[in-house]
């Protein structure tokens, strides 16, 4: 099964302007994830998705291919990673590329390890699930302790199950998306709406 890795790296960032081009640990942020992806033998093709020629050039220098430029309207703050992946699938199809899945690798996860990428690919190949993504355990602001405040300043727990006073070690484990890696089947992205996720 053929996997195309896509590194989405837009130029705009309100939090840290130009973050994908910033040098961290001796190389641009986008260079870290491209270098890691290049070391994974089971990735068949590695491309950059960006609207910025400078980011494209940096990624290419580290081993990514520039097959297309992302439209500026898909590089805005409100655009989701799914929109970027769906666009990648559309462009790859337009170029006549054959592939089974798209693996999105975020430049903002420069410490993502080769073995984590390999594990995600193995899960996808051996389970039949349509998506794999990385998660991290919620250690602070546990959902059982989260409160909401209404218009009349009344506080209500998110979970009204009386468990908000459990000791930390007795709380059930919850996980949030870590944002470093998303792997999705081509068919899922062509007909977005699937809900079968593997962790």
Keywords:
199 residues, 6-stranded mixed sheet, single chain, 10 strands, disordered C terminus, alpha/beta
Tell me what you see in this structure.
The protein is α/β, with parallel strands linked by helices and 199 residues long. Helices cover 26% and strands 23% of the residues. The protein contains 5 helices and 10 strands, in the order βββαβααβαββββαβ. It has helices at residues 29-38, 53-61, 81-94, 114-127, 186-190; strands at 3-8, 23-24, 27-28, 45-49, 101-105, 131-137, 147-149, 155-157, 175-185, 197-198. It has a 6-stranded mixed sheet with strand order 4-1-5-9-6-10, with helices on both faces. Strands 2-3 form a two-stranded antiparallel ribbon. Strand 2 and strand 3 (27-28) form a beta hairpin. The two termini are 20 Å apart.
């Amino acid at each position: 099964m053929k996997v195309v890795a896509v590194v989405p790296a837009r130029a705009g960032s309100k939090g840290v302007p130009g973050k994908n081009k910033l040098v961290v640990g001796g190389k641009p942020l986008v260079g870290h994830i491209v270098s890691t992806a290049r070391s994974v033998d089971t990735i068949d093709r590695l491309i950059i998705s960006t609207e910025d020629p400078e980011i494209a050039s940096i990624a290419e220098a580290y081993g990514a291919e520039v097959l297309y430029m992302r439209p500026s309207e898909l590089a805005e703050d409100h655009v989701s990673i799914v929109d970027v992946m769906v666009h990648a699938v559309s462009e790859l199809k337009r170029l006549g590329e054959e592939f089974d899945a798209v693996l999105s690798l975020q430049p903002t996860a420069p410490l993502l390890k080769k073995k984590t990428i390999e594990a995600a690919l193995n899960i996808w190949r051996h389970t039949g699930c349509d998506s794999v993504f990385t998660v991290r355990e919620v250690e602070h602001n546990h959902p059982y302790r989260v409160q909401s405040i209404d218009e009349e300043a009344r506080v209500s727990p998110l979970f009204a199950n009386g468990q908000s006073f459990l000791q930390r070690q007795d709380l059930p484990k919850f996980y949030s998306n870590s944002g470093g890696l998303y792997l999705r089947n081509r068919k899922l992205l062509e007909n977005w709406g699937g809900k079968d996720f593997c962790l």
